[in-house]
Amino acid sequence: MPEQPRRRERKKAATRQKIADAALRLFLERGYDAVGIRDVAAEADVAVTTLFSHFAAKEALVFEQDQDVERRLTQAVTGRAPHEPLLPALRREIQALVRHCTSDAAAPVRRMVEGSPALREYEESMRLRHAESLATALAADPGLSRSVTACRAIARFVIDAYALALGAADPETAVDEVFRMIEAAWEAA
Q: Any idea which residues the entry calls the DNA-binding region (predicted)?
């Protein structure tokens, strides 16, 4: 019997990926605004209701790895080894995210996001949610002993390091520069 749930989860994940792949292909071919939800559902060969059971909004199709990014950021806090410093773990995650999002392979998607007010707004709301999840993880860590306000501020700074790096001429150097300021703020808290 344990095999059944795993199979069901694999099928759900495969359907979700099929929908996301179809959406991205259509968005890049035709432009984000020119593609409707029905177009994506037809391309993925699923019902519109199936699409919405996997993605809450059209914008979410572009950011299909949103939950994984959020999980990785909070795991940088919760999954680090005892006595492993916090900020280097967070810096590594932000650097990895920046490297991925500034790679040549990601450039067409980045241009699409930057060219769409709806996608930029969705990305900003996603970053705010990531910052809140990260702040919750920071505040829950008994070894950090910082106020909730300090945890929320540092979480916002960490998430903003990603956003600032995307617009920088040298994204990795920008992350390092912002993290030096974050380290000073963390020590001051």
A: 36-55
